[in-house]
Amino acid sequence: MSETRSSKTEAVRRLGVRYPIVQGPFGGGLSSTRLAATVSNLGGLGSYGAYSLTPDEIFQVAKELRSLTSNPFALNLWVSDHDPGGLELSPEEFDRVYALFEPYYRELGVEKPERPQRYAQKFEEQVEALLEARPPVFSFVFGVPSAPLLAECRRRGIVTIGAATSIAEAQALDGAGVDLIVATGFEAGGHRPSFLARAEDSLMGTLALTPLVADRVKAPVIAAGGIGDGRGIRAVLTLGAQAAQLGTAFLACEESGASPEHRAALFSDQSQRTALTRAFSGRLARGLRNRWSDEMGPRVPELPPFPILGWFASKLKPAALAAGRTDLVSLWSGQIAPNLRHRTAPALMESLVRELEQP
Ligand SMILES: Cc1cc2nc3c(=O)[nH]c(=O)nc-3n(C[C@H](O)[C@H](O)[C@H](O)COP(=O)(O)O)c2cc1C
């Protein structure tokens, strides 16, 4: 592949990649080292969403990625790891919350789970492992890491990428000295990573958010949300972004950690109906509408906060998928899904680069 005109951006230089293309990270087990390494080897920035990994697993993933690619890659974490009330439940609260989910557990033949020590990993422990693993790039969502942590990244030569859903969030990241900023439009699949206002009050689209952010921050901007082909990348470069981050288009590729059922749904007519809902994790996220989002969405006020809600919902996933059912599991997707054409990462990368290079 020849070098593109757009590959000369400052973002491309800082990331040490060839093309202004970032494969967005996927949390919750949907990332794979194969996908991230493939994208990095083809001149984009491959990313691995390590949000649900233990510190040991983070270290192992970094080691594996290093064995699969000598190009830069990103490890991604969630800075804020719980919402108020989301750290623990007393035995009585646990039973009361379980009762809200029990009909679904019964329907899928899943046993009541034991009350766990914790419902999710702790960012502080994860980031220690990440620093030690020293990935070329550390991308993060849901907040701004502390000044000492950002200083430590700089000292270790780790490039940082933060995510913003509003002008204020972009300015907060820029003010803290984060190296690059992802402007995430509300078309995007997965969680809406807002951290200064409620996600429901931070619903700007990529077309508006990209130039608003690019005109106000020093850091190069990476646009995300609703970008599925070379046209989309060119559009956001025109709007002031210096690179594009694509999630859903890479999630649909066979190298990702998505289940075959999830991937099939992304290529089906179901992909025309996405919804932003808190019903799967407790935080607002975009996925395909299904029975769970339709039935649990209206009940969110009585459900536990993030990450406890997600913990109860995720216990159903193995049984649901084993039964070939997609009505009770999250099927994360952005709005661009109906336009997806490529089923492997090399085919997608080849077409993105070709379309980007067109005069
Ligand atoms: C299944 C899924 C999981 C995601 N998990 C994360 C994550 O853990 N961290 C993160 O920074 N972004 C995450 N994202 C956002 C993507 O990295 C990317 O910014 C987004 O998908 C871009 O919008 P698009 O889906 O319209 O291409 C996720 C997206 C999806 C679809």
Describe what you observe in this structure.
This protein is an alpha/beta fold. It has a single domain (about 10-355), classed as Aldolase class I (TIM Barrel). The chain has 15 helices and 11 strands. The strands form 2 sheets. An 8-stranded parallel sheet has the order 1-9-8-6-5-4-3-2. A 3-stranded antiparallel sheet has the order 7-11-10, with no helix packed on it. Helix 7 links the parallel strand 5 and strand 6 (about 180-185). Helix 3 (about 55-70) packs parallel to helix 5. The structure holds flavin mononucleotide (FMN). Flavin mononucleotide binds next to strand 4, strand 9 and helix 10.
What's the topology here?
Layout lengths: L9 H6 L5 E3 L9 H9 L4 E4 L5 H14 L4 E6 L12 H18 L14 H11 L3 E5 L5 H9 L3 E6 L2 H9 L4 E5 L5 E2 L14 H9 L6 E4 L5 H9 L4 E4 L1 H4 L8 H7 L7 E4 L7 E4 L2 H6 L11 H7 L2 H6 L22 H13 L2
Parallel strand pairs: 1-9, 2-3, 3-4, 4-5, 5-6, 6-8, 8-9
Antiparallel strand pairs: 7-11, 10-11
Helix pairs in contact: 2-3, 3-5, 9-15
The structure holds flavin mononucleotide.
Question: What is shown here, in short?
Answer:
The chain has 359 residues and is α/β, with parallel strands linked by helices. It is 38% helix and 13% strand. It has a single domain (10-357), classed as TIM Barrel (Alpha-Beta Barrel).
